[in-house]
Structures are given as C-alpha cells and as structure tokens.
Amino acid sequence: MKSLALPFWTLLAPVLAWIAYFAIGGMAGTLPSVLLSVVLIAGVLAAVHHAEVVAHRVGEPFGTIILALAVTVIEVSLLVSLMSSGGEKTAALARDTVFAAIMIILTFIIGICILVGGVKFREQFVTKHAATSALVALTAILVLTLVLPNYTISRPGPQYTNPQLIFAAVVSLIIYASFIMIQSVRHRDYFLPKDEKGNLNDAEDTHATPPSDKTTFTSLFLLIACLGAVVLLAKKLSPSLEAGVASIGAPNSLVGIIIAMIVLLPECIAAIQAARKDRLQTSMNLALGSALASIGLTIPAVAIYTLFSHTTVLLGIDTTSTVLLILSIFTVMLSLVTGKTNVLYGVVLLTIFAAYLFLNIFP
C-alpha cells in the first residue's frame, strides 16, 4: 500500500502559523483574533498529521509517547515563561493548568473516544493491564502533588515546603520513568491494539509502507513547530478569551480551561481518529500517556523553577476539585478495567466533564 505522504498544506500550515504569530500577534481587534484562530486550527490539524507519520514510522506505543512528550515540553516552557513574568499572582498557575489538563484528558478526551467508538462499533477493546498500569501511576502522582499538600502541616495553605516539593518532584519522575519503561520495554505488548480475542488489531494503515527517514524527521520537526505555534497563538488569544469570559460573568479560571483544550486539541483529534479506526488502545495510550507526562514532568519542572527563583507555588486543589478528580479516576478505572467499552461509559465521562465546566462557571 502507499506510504504516508506529506500534503502541501501540512508543510504550509506551521509556516503560516509562525508568520501570523509575529506579524499580527500584537494586533488587537476582531479581525486579527479571527485570523489567529484560523491559523491556530490549521496548525492543530497539521500537527495531527505529522504525529501520525512519526507514529507509523516508530510504531506503537513509541509514537504516542513522542506526541505526549512534545506537547508537555512546550506546555512546561509556556508555563515557566508565564510564571516568570507574572510574579506572585501566578502562584496557582501550575496547579490550575495541570488540573485542567488532567480533567480534560480523563473526562472529555477519553469520554469522546469511547462514545465515538461505541456508536460505530458497539463494543471496543483495550488491554486491562495497560489501563491499570497507567491509572495506578497517574493516581499516585495526582494525590501526591495535588491533594496531599492540603494536609501537610509544615507550612499553612495548599503548598509544600522546599524539601517536600523536592520529594514530590523526585517521586513524580520515578513513577513516570517507571511507566515509560513498562510501556516501551518490559511490557510493550500491553499497549498494542488488540481485538476481542487478544490478537493484534491490524488496521488498514498498519500495512502501509512506513515513511522514509527523511519524511519522518521532517514530520518530527514540523510537529514540534506546529505545537509551538499552537501554544504561542493560544497565549496571544488569551486576552480576547479573558474579555469574552468576563463579559458573561464567568470566573477567570475558565480561560485556563479553554487554553488547555486548545493545546490538547492535537492529541484529542489523533485519539478520536484512532477510536474511529477501532484502535481504542491507541486512543487510551495517547490520553493516559499525555496525562502522565503532563503532571509527571510539569511538577518537577515547576519545582526546579520555584527553588531557583525563590517564588511560591500553590499545589493543593480545593474540595470540589478533589471530589471531581476522584470521581473521574474512579469512573475511568471502571470503564477500562473490564477490557470492553460501550457508549454508556463515554456518556458518563462526558457528563462529569460537563459538571466540571459548569462548576467552574457557577462555583
């Protein structure tokens, strides 16, 4: 079969995105915002295509790991940049950003993938060991970094002391590195798409001729370029988003949720496309791998920055957020632990996501 190619628009999109960022990124008004939104969406779609090329060349689960790491590295860079320029008012930025990303991944991305796959195929299949491996690692990191700070007594408020912060950062890295080893080396077979009988799910694109090394490296470079442009354009659009959110009387935290959704859009589209091809395991690799990378790498990076810059970082989430987080993890666990999914699981997860959005607008 024909190998994956690079359509011209996927080469043009990142170039236009970066040109738009430098040329009209500083302009105010409706027209510049609309233009930035258009090139942002084009950049997202191009990123998805390049991610598929790289993933097809290196195989699963390495392709999903590359996409997760690329997005996380750019997210961390943006987060540290905002914290360095925002001062004390950004003390809760890391917590809010990570929590928004986790809730979007656990409830929206996983929910929509299960729903789409269930509508088309009635039932889809995942490897139980892959789901439990990812969720046990994710649960431990989430509790240690976002919940436990509320209950330590060395320092008042939802924050760690420096030794506690270092410990949480080291533990996060150890857990994430252990998961990557399990996913890519020791138990790689857990994370390969399989059918009901446990046989490898040979989708049509599996038989396509792998792209050449030149095409793969070109796509990898353009993937990073697209993701960088998406994050920076989202940052430029944030003032317009803030104005729109303020006009409806919603809290400012909704802006962070919208930006997180934009940044996670490439992974969301790639996950949905995999679910539509009856490769739900690939969708879960993308979603859960991204969640682990998001918190497992972001928290250590923020810890290093705060220790060297002598700034404050608030990590503990409030009671409402804790309840929603526990409910989300518990529901995802029940949805995947049997190895079979249907539309009900997707509907329930999407209603939890709706509750998360609703309680952010009407706390």
Automatic annotation (TrEMBL):
Molecular functions (GO terms): potassium:proton antiporter activity; sodium:proton antiporter activity
GO CC annotations, alphabetized: plasma membrane
Keywords: Membrane, Transmembrane, Transmembrane helix
Main location: membrane
Protein name: Ionic transporter y4hA
Every Sodium/calcium exchanger membrane region domain range: 35-184, 219-361
UniProt feature coiled coil, ranges: none
InterPro entries: Alkaline_pH_Ca-Antiporter, NaCa_Exmemb, NCX_ion-bd_dom_sf
Bilayer topology: Multi-pass membrane protein
Spans through the membrane: 27-49, 61-83, 98-119, 131-153, 165-182, 217-234, 254-274, 286-308, 314-336, 343-362
